[in-house]
Amino acid sequence: METLTAALLSVLPRDSVITDPVRLRTYECDGLTYHRATPGVVVLPATAEQVARVVRLCNDFGVPFVARGAGTGLSGGALPREDGVLIVTSKMRAILEIDLPNRRAVVEPGVTNLAITEAVREQGYYYAPDPSSQQVCSIGGNVAENSGGAHCLKYGFTVNHVEACEIVTPDGDLVTLDRMDPGYDLLGAFIGSEGTLGIATKITVRLSRAPEAVTTVLAAYESIEQGGQAVSEIIGAGIVPAAIEMMDALAIEAAEAAVACSYPEGAGAVLIVELDGPAAEVERQFARLREICAGAFELRVAADAAERAAIWKGRKSAFAAVGRISPAYIVQDGVVPRTALPGVLAAIDRISAEHGIRVANVFHAGDGNLHPLVLFDDAEPGAGERAEVVSGAILDLCIEHGGSITGEHGVGVDKARYMPRMFSETDLDTMQLVRCAFDPEGLANPGKVFPTPRLCGEVPGVRKGVHPLVESGKAEQF
Ligand SMILES: Cc1cc2nc3c(=O)[nH]c(=O)nc-3n(C[C@H](O)[C@H](O)[C@H](O)COP(=O)(O)OP(=O)(O)OC[C@H]3O[C@@H](n4cnc5c(N)ncnc54)[C@H](O)[C@@H]3O)c2cc1C
C-alpha cells in the first residue's frame, strides 16, 4: 500500500490523499453501520482525469477500488476494502451546464440530488427522483443504486431520468455512455450497477417541468388493512398519484417522537397521497380520491406549501426517527406486487410476534416497495441474530409473492447472501458475464452484489468460452 500511496501522491495533491488512520475511520461504513472496514487509503479526486489516473494506478498495482459519494447507501455498497483505495467524489460538486430548452443538466457525480432541483426551481423545473436522503446523497450514488423515492410511482427511477454518463471504466479509460447510442443499452447496464462497472464522473440528467397543481392529502385509518384497501381502490380507479406512501402505528410513533409531525392521534395507519399535473385533472382526481378515502377517520388536505411540507415531514424522517423508539434497527427494502401487500403485511406481523422483534412499516404503497424497520436492542443477547432472522424471513416473503429482495437500496454487501434465494447459479453466472465484460480484473467494488466472489476466469462462460445455457443446449453459441 505504501508504494501505491506514493504513486497516488504523484497524480493527486497532498490534501487529496488520506492515510491518517483516524481520518480513514470516517469512511469505514455507509448508512448501514454494521458493516465496517477501514480503507487502505482514501483519495478525493477533483476531476474525471484524476479519477482515471487513480483507477489506472489501481490496475498497475492490482489493487481493488471502491467509489463513494455521500455514504448514505443502505446496503453497504460503499463499504471500503482494507486492501484497497476508496475514491470519494465529494470534491466533484460542480453543476457544469443547465440547458433548459433541452431540459437537461450536466453535473459532476458529487452534486447532491436536491442541489439539481434547487438550481432550476425558480425557472419552474425540477429533478424528479427524490430519495428521502436527497439533501445529502450524491447523484453518482443515485446512478449507481438506480435510486427511487416517493414520487417514482408516477415518474420512474433514476434510470428514467439519466440521458448520459461519462464514466471511468474499471481499467481507467474515460468513455461516455449515451441513451442515444445505437446497439446495446450500456447506459442502462451501468445504472444500478452499484459501482461494479466503473465510476461515473459526469452525468447528464433530464429536468422535468414543475406541475401546474399539486394536492397533498393525509388520510388516517384505524388499521393498516383499511389503508391498504384504499391504495388498491385508488389504483383500481385509474388514478396514478405522484406518490402514495403508508406508515403504520409504530412508524408514526417514531416520527412523532423525532419530529412532532402531529399526525392524527390513534391512527393505525396513515396514507399520504399526492396528486399533481394540470389543475383541472388534479381537481377531478381529488374529487374521486375523496370518495375513495371516505373510510378514513380524518382527511387533511394541505392548503399550501408549508402544510404540504408538514405532512411529508413525518414520512421523510421515518428511517432516522426509529432511533427514538429502538436502540438499534435494520432498514429492510423489499418489493411485492401491490395486490399482495395486505397478505404480506399480515405475515410480517406474525413473524414479528413469533420472534419477539418489533417491525415498523413505512412503504411506497403505490409500487409495493416495503421498508420494514426491524427493531432490536443490541445490548440484549441474541436480539441482533433474531432481528437478522426476521429480516431474512421478510425477504423470503417478498420472493414467495413474486417480488424482489430490493426495491431501491441495492444489493451491496448486505444482500449479496440473499441473491441465491432469487437467482439460480446460471442466472448469477450470466450476470457475472456482464461484469467481466466491463471489469475482467475484478477490481471495481469487488465483494458486492455477488454472493461468492469469483475471478472472471472462474465464471463458466468466460472460462470455457461457452455460456452455461449453451452447454445445456438451451441457447445458441454466444
Ligand atoms: C435516511 C435515508 C433515507 C433514504 N431514502 C432513500 C429513498 O427514499 N430511496 C432510495 O432509493 N434510497 C434511499 N436511501 C439510500 C441512499 O441514500 C441511496 O442509495 C443513495 O443513492 C446513495 O447515494 P450516496 O451518494 O450516499 O452513495 P454511497 O452510499 O456513497 O454509495 C452507494 C453506491 O454507489 C456507488 N457509487 C457512489 N458514487 C459513485 C460513482 N460516482 N460512480 C459509480 N458508483 C458510485 C458506491 O460504490 C456504492 O456502491 C436512503 C438513505 C438514508 C440514510
From TrEMBL:
MF annotations from Gene Ontology: FAD binding; oxidoreductase activity
Record's keyword terms, sorted: FAD, Flavoprotein, Oxidoreductase
Keyword hit for Ribonucleoprotein: no
Record has Ubl conjugation as a keyword: no
Cross-referenced Pfam families: FAD-oxidase_C (PF02913), FAD_binding_4 (PF01565)
Protein name: Glycolate oxidase
Membrane-spanning segments: none
Organism annotation: Nonomuraea wenchangensis
Domain of life: Bacteria
Residues of the FAD-binding PCMH-type domain: 35-210
Cofactor or coenzyme needed: FAD
Gene3D superfamilies per UniProt: 3.30.465.10, 3.30.70.2740, Vanillyl-alcohol Oxidase, Chain A, domain 4
